[in-house]
Structures are given as structure tokens and as C-alpha cells.
Design goal:
Length: 452
Amino acid sequence: MSALRSPIVVAGAGPAGSLLAIYLARQGHEVTIYERRSDLRATDVDVGRSINLALATRGIVPLVEIGAIGRVDEITIPMRGRMIHADNDSTPALQPYGSHPHEVIHSVSRSDLNAILLDEAEATGRVRIEFERRLEAVDFETSTLTFHDGSSEPFGVVFGCDGAGSPVRKAIEAAGSCTSHTEWLDHDYKELTLRPGADGTHRLDPNALHIWPRGELMLIALANPGGDFTVTLFAPKAVFADLADATSVDAFFTDEFPDFAAMVPDLTDQFANNPTGALGTLRTDGWSHNDQAIVIGDAAHAIVPFHGQGMNAAMESARALAAHLASTPDDVAGAFRRFETDRRPDTDAIARMALDNYIEMRSGVVDPDYVAQRTLALELERRHPTLLSPRYNMVMFSTMPYAEALRRAARQSEIIADALADPDLDVDLLVRTLPPLPELDPLADPEALSVS
Ligand code: FAD
């Protein structure tokens, strides 16, 4: 058994890496972060995928804990429900996320949030961040990290927060402590921008997550503070393959999303110039190697983005790993193993729910059966607030373990399906058979972020 050995290194300064470094610093450790990119606070770097993200309770709790929530509040836009653009003729309709004012999710710029976490990490006085240092290899025999330019650094322990393509995970795999594979989705995505109107304001309601569900595909839009929206097309690869020239792109959007197409005069240029991204679920078995290395966040459990939980889950994982290290500081290898044993069922559960949510978003939201189930779930939650909460709400507005949310949701769905099939059934009696919902984490302050 041993304590964390110096030098303590975090690979990757994304949400998981910068947050984990803050937690380690708060436990008294000196930490060096090596980040592949340049400092996003100093340069207009391309941060890669997805310009804005949905922040929810599991990401908010650590931000409250580290004292950064006030700054984050200044850069978030609350979204109180899904605005469904059902077809080309009807008026968009809001499906609220919940019946309580705090049941909103928050649109936030990925880079602005990351910048706050980098500032907070440096403010601890114990975290040093080295940018433009792309880790290439980890040698566990010599405890040496090698970088893209051939330089090397010693390490005692390395935390791999280096995203889905993680070199740290590859080293753990090469050492025989991990196996992994990625299940690629047969759908891709592309981001577009809906610019502000002539008066500089948002052209759609900024306080909603807009969805144009079209069966096999969908468009979604999240507001940014500057008046624009980040809009994402999710569609089968075959659809993208057909959109090979401006004429087909123009025809596709005019046919499927005419209201959106009419607001974006440079749509075909954006479509041609912006990259198309792939989507996958990373399955891993074995997150750590002895007391020398562990992966967290996307490096261990990357998921598809349809529940808006990848970053929230990565931040929750950083907090959970820090708690394990704090509880057994002299048994790092044991803390790593216990963290994986505890956390894997949850990350497996959110991986599954994220895949399910794609179907819900692109077709369920306009299915009368789904709408009836969701309406009854919200009504039952109103009648039995300590016993039942819709699945979406357990995932987004609680810190209940994901695996428990999945289990509870399965039982709740049965009750709701039975009640809809048989109006004479005493549904309240059935709901009373459910065990009480767990208490909300004390840090899950419903007023932590502005909701209007
Ligand atoms: P990353 O954010 O990938 O950070 C990894 C860091 O490591 C980066 O800074 C990278 O530059 C650095 N790095 C990589 N390789 C190296 C190397 N070799 N050496 C040094 N540094 C390295 N999640 C949500 O919670 N809500 C959402 O609404 C949401 N929407 C999404 C939409 C899309 C289209 C996509 C693709 C994802 C979305 N996600 C969302 C998921 C979210 O982006 C990720 O889960 C989250 O960024 C994971 O954080 P991370 O710190 O683990 O990894």
C-alpha cells in the first residue's frame, strides 16, 4: 500500500482534468497538468467538438463545492424545457423538463466553463499547467512520460483525463490492466450557427432546448449569451453521404427544416466548411494500473451526447475519485479499484440511457404514447414527490447514482404503462410500493444557478 507518489501528473486540462487537479490540490498535493492544446484563455483556439453544452446537477455540485459557481452563473443560460418544432406547419410547443422552477438545465460555452476551471486550478497555488504538451506515451517501468516533441518528464502517478483517445488508457491497456472498445453509432453530427437577428437578439426563445425531431434524424439548438445558437444536425451516415454538394444540402434543409433554413443564409457554406463528427460509446474494463495510473471522464467512459451528460458525468467522476483518495490516502491502488467498482455500474447505466435518449429526442417527443407517459409521470411526481421522479429528471436534476435511476425508471415505466392501459387501476397504490427517493445531495442547491 502506498500514498500518491510525486510527481503527480494530470494529462488533459478539460473539465475532468482541471476539476480533478483542483480536488487534489485541496487535499494538499502539488499537481502538474500537461495539456495538448494552447491556453484557451489566451488564444482563440479551436476547442474541437461542440461549442456549448448542457450543464446539470451532477456538474453543478462540484462547481458549488469548489466555490466556482458564482462565476459560472454569469455565463449560463437556463433552458426550462424542450421546444418541439414538430413539423413544418405547427407552432413550436414547449415540453417543460419538470414542475419545479429549479428543474432547468443550463446552456454553457465549453471553453468559457473550461477557462473558469483553469483559473480556479491555478488559484489553488498548487497546480501548474503546461500547455502545448501532447502526451504520447507512458512508460510504467521507468515512470516516464514522453511527449510529441520527444521531451520527457518523470511521474509518480498519472491521471488520464485526456479524452476518448486517451494515450494514458492505451498505456494501461498495453500493460495488460485494461481492455476497451468503442461502439460506433451509425449516425454522425455537424454543428452550425444560427446568428442573432438584426437587433442582436436570439432569433428563437433562448430559454429552451430546441428540437426538430424528424424520426431517423434531428436538429437541436442551444443558445449562447452573444445572441447566437449552436445548432447540431444528428443524422444517419447515409444521410450525410447524400449531402455532398450545395444543391442537395439546400434541398434537404428546405424540405426538413424550412424555418431554420430561412434564418441561415450561409447554410450551405457552413455545412461545407464545418467538420462532421462521429459518435460512439467507449466500453472499458480496467481503469487503473497499480497505483501508477487511472483514467477518468471520456478517457474511461465516453458516451453519445443525447442526454447531455458526458461532461456532467466526467465531473461527477472527478469528485468521486477524489473522495476515494481522501478516504484511503495510504492505499492509492485500492482507492483506484474501489472507485471503478463503485462507478462502473453508473457509467454503464448513463451510456445506455444516453443511447435511449436519442430515440426519445428524435421521435419519442412527438409520439402521443410518449407524451401521455411523460404527462402521467409528471402528474405522479406532483402527487408523490418523495416516491417518483421521471427518468430524465433523476438523471438531470439529482445526484442519485445513474444505475439506481435506471432501475427505478424501469419499475416506474411498468407502473405508468399499466395505468395507461387500465384506467381503473389504482396507480397511486402502485406508486406507494416504490422505495423513497434518496435525499438530494446537500450541495445540489436548487438556487445555485439563476433559473430565469
Ligand atoms: P475532454 O473534454 O475531451 O478533455 C480532454 C482534454 O485532454 C482536452 O483538453 C484535450 O485537449 C486534452 N488531451 C487530449 N489528448 C491529450 C494528450 N495526448 N496530451 C495532453 N492532453 C491531451 N456533455 C454534457 O455534459 N452536456 C452536453 O450537453 C454535451 N454535449 C455534447 C455534444 C457533443 C456534440 C459532443 C461530442 C459531446 C457532448 N458532451 C456533453 C460530452 C462532453 O463533451 C464530454 O463528455 C466532456 O468534454 C468530457 O470531459 P473530459 O475532460 O473527460 O474530456
